Each structure stands twice: as structure tokens, then as C-alpha cells.
Amino acid sequence: MNSRPKKANRKERAESSDHAERTELPLELNLLEAEIGYTFSDISRLRTATTHSSYANEQRARGITVESNERMEFLGDSVLSLIVSDYLFENYPTMPEGDLSPIRSTVVCEETLAKFAKSISLGSYLLLGHGESITDGRRRPSILSDAFESLLAAIYLDGGYDAARDFLLPKLTPQIEKRAETGRFRDYKTQLQQLIQQGGSGDILEYVTVGESGPMHMRVFEVEARLNSNIIGRGVARSKRSAEQLAAKEALELFGEE
User: So which residues are the catalytic ones?
Assistant: First the structure.
């Protein structure tokens, strides 16, 4: 059976941080295992989860085959969504779907995942290509959030759903509960629609996808919010729904509602 060490205490984390400053990056993976409180039965899964595509591409150019974390990121995104959805469904039995979805969106976004990644110094363990390394890639939110999803997938593959859930929920539940209690999550599309309907002039609000980029498992969508064919907001995200929310948020700011 897989053994899981206790999470490092504050002194150990401080020593690990000091070590990170003195040591050439990336750090040894056993330090990351100590930080997250999980020991892998197959350490190669953790190495793949911490291998950025830029590094894999550089190695490929040298005739060396190295797997990047892109496939694990794809899996981790689904595992993340399932764990969060499962938690919300079980712990908020009377909350309607219209309220559950915005909560989930806020806790699985790039900003939140990047913060989680920074809390365990995940960037210090990443294998990056030279270009990413010299341009502060270890601190870039997009790289960190993707790596966090990959790490979650690696734990899931190594220890199963329970292990992934036990790793993730302590980080997520405080934010979920705070948003559920204070209503900090926002459905910007609904708010914008209500604002426009108040005018009673029959204005037409629509969301138009004007761009798509990236590989199929990491698509990025650009959406415009249009009022009577006039652009009032733009949003870019990894799902059309999130991009529409961001476009609506920008439109609300234009109208002075944010």
C-alpha cells in the first residue's frame, strides 16, 4: 500500500524554500513529495507532470524523446472538475445548478490554480526549455496552473480518486465555503442581461466567438459581447462559457457596474 508522509511543518517548508534559493533549479522531486504530503509509487508520473512542453521540444530536437505534461493536464482538468462538482453536490444539497456552476468556475480558474501551485513552490520543480527559464516561466500563471492540473492527474493515476481528492480538497474547501457563504461568485452574463432588460428598448445582446487557438485539448476561445451588433466587451479563456463571462464582465465595467 502506498505510504503518505505527513505534510511538512512550517520549519521544514522554510528550509525547503531556503534550499530552493541556494540550489540550481529544478529541485529534486522528493522535496515536492514532502511538500504535498504524498509519496509516489511510480516517480516517473511526477516527473512527467513537471515536464513542460518547451523542455520536451528541446529534447526532441536533440533526438531525445521526453513526454511533456500536456496529456496529464488534459486528464487533470477533468479530475479537478469532478472532485469540485462532487464536493459541491454532496455538501450543498439545496443549492440550484445556477449557483453551483459559478462557484465551481471561480475555484477552477487559472488564477486560483496558479496560487495553489505557488503555495507548494511547484515552479521550482518544473523542467522548462531555455527560453521559458530565462523569461520567468516558473512564475507564469498559465504554466503554473497547467502544471498543477498535471500534478493532480499524476496523483490520480498513482493513487486513485481518493488520493487526488485528499490532496485537493484542503486547498479548495476554504474558498468554496467562503464563496458559498458570501456570494462572492458572480454570474456576469445574468447581471448584464438584467441590466440591459431594464432599459426596455428591445436591445439585442449576443455573444460571438471570434477566435479559437491552441491544440484540441487546450483550446483558447475569444468571445465578443455585442449589443445591437456593437462590441461592448471581450473575453479570452479556455472554454466558451468562461470567455463569455469575461466578456460580460468587461461590458459591465464599460457601463460602470463593476
Answer: 77, 149
